[in-house]
Design brief:
The protein is α/β, with parallel strands linked by helices and 338 residues long. It has 16 helices and twelve strands. The chain has two domains: 3-142, Glycogen Phosphorylase B (Rossmann fold, 3-Layer(aba) Sandwich); 150-309, Glycogen Phosphorylase B (Rossmann fold, 3-Layer(aba) Sandwich). A six-stranded parallel sheet has the order 2-1-3-4-5-6. Strands 9-8-7-10-11-12 form a six-stranded parallel sheet, sandwiched between helices. Helix 8 crosses helix 13 and helix 11 (247-254) crosses helix 15. This is Glycosyltransferase subfamily 4-like N-terminal domain-containing protein. Residues 51-150 form the Glycosyltransferase subfamily 4-like N-terminal domain. One of its GO terms (molecular function) is glycosyltransferase activity.
């Protein structure tokens, strides 16, 4: 039986969440599990949308402004399983941005109690949610996000050039930490490294000012062809201040490009899969890591990380199939007990 799943989304940007949902709509493997339907909702709206679904999956932002709608959703569909996938929060996010921890904990516990299951996007995020007692017992699962990686896996080979290009790809905002990387790069003394930044966002002017015309720091602008952008680099850097998962890392591995990142949040899982741990996520930490970088070693093919990326779609489909089975088995067990 093919069930209908409505995926609720309140983020209109072409970021990782929407790319993941588009992949879910178009993937033949995921179509065997369910009919996936994307349902946009307005952030902060008070009423639940009209849905005809066997399962509802929230990809919504958990906030006090969204709590009335989440409560209305639960009330409108008391007999329909509702799952939440947590894309936003992580241990590092809380450490950096949450002053009133008790209030924030109350928000998450109240919201998560409305769902039959809560899905973490990485093992580290899931461990944090469990450790802090934020989810009801037995409700937490982990599903690492995925997108269509075939265009990334189609790229073969490595660049053969005297200059070693480090790429940074994503939204230019506080979270992604490109300011840290630029500040570090301006202190690097070696002449064989270049930094290419792909993207756009609210911090673009600040980042360009920080670069101060450094000849090896190049802003490439927004690109829709992320696989080609990654293939034009020799390594991909993720200097994120917080990162529940870090989809860019698995995309870079699919192109067979080494990933450079700090050891926190979901990035820890990528380091376990073969990413390079740069140490402290500060300008000084990145400067030291870049000065010590062995560019010849980084250009060698890495079958381990590419195989890990090649299996991401299969793991993603298996995890969603397991979630659907678990949700409806739980519901059947509850009905039988009644």
């Amino acid at each position: 039986m093919i069930r209908a799943i409505s995926h609720l989304i309140d983020d209109a940007s072409f970021g990782g969440i929407n790319r993941m949902l588009e992949y879910m709509e178009s993937s033949p493997e995921l179509a065997k599990i369910a009919d996936h339907r994307i349902v946009p909702v307005r952030r902060g709206q008070l009423s639940a949308p009209t849905l005809g679904a066997d399962l509802i999956v929230s990809h919504l932002s958990i906030s006090w402004a969204n709590l009335p709608m989440l409560t209305a959703l639960r009330a409108a569909y008391p007999n329909t399983p509702i799952v939440h996938m947590e894309h936003s929060y992580s241990e590092r996010f809380v450490a950096l941005h949450v002053e009133n921890r008790d209030r924030f904990t109350a928000l998450l516990q109240t919201a998560y109690a409305l769902f039959d299951k809560v899905v973490a996007v990485s093992e580290m995020q899931g461990a944090w949610l469990n450790r802090r007692g934020l989810c009801p017992p037995g409700s937490l699962l982990v599903i690492e996000p995925c997108v269509d990686l075939d265009p990334f896996l189609a790229h073969e080979g490595h660049r053969d050039a005297p200059e070693f290009v480090i790429g940074a790809i994503g939204r230019f905002d506080l979270q992604k930490g490109f300011d840290i990387l630029i500040d570090a790069f301006r202190q690097v003394r070696r002449a064989d490294l270049a930094l290419h930044l792909y993207g756009d966002g609210p911090d673009v002017d600040d980042l360009q000012n920080r670069a101060k015309g450094h000849p090896a720091i190049i802003f490439k602008g927004y690109t829709a062809d992320v696989p080609a952008a990654m293939a034009a680099c020799d390594a991909i850097a993720l200097p994120s201040r917080w990162e529940p998962y870090g989809l860019v890392a698995v995309e870079a591995m699919a192109v067979d490009r080494p990933v450079l990142c700090p050891r926190h949040d979901g990035l820890i899982g990528h380091i376990a899969a073969g990413a390079h741990d740069i140490g402290e996520n500060s300008a000084a930490g990145w400067t030291a890591a870049l000065e010590a970088l062995d560019v010849d070693a980084q250009r060698r093919p890495c079958g381990r990380t590419r195989a890990h990326a090649a299996g991401a779609g299969r793991r993603f489909a298996k995890a969603w199939a397991g979630l659907v089975d678990e949700v409806f088995n739980d519901r059947d067990a509850e009905a039988g007990a009644a």
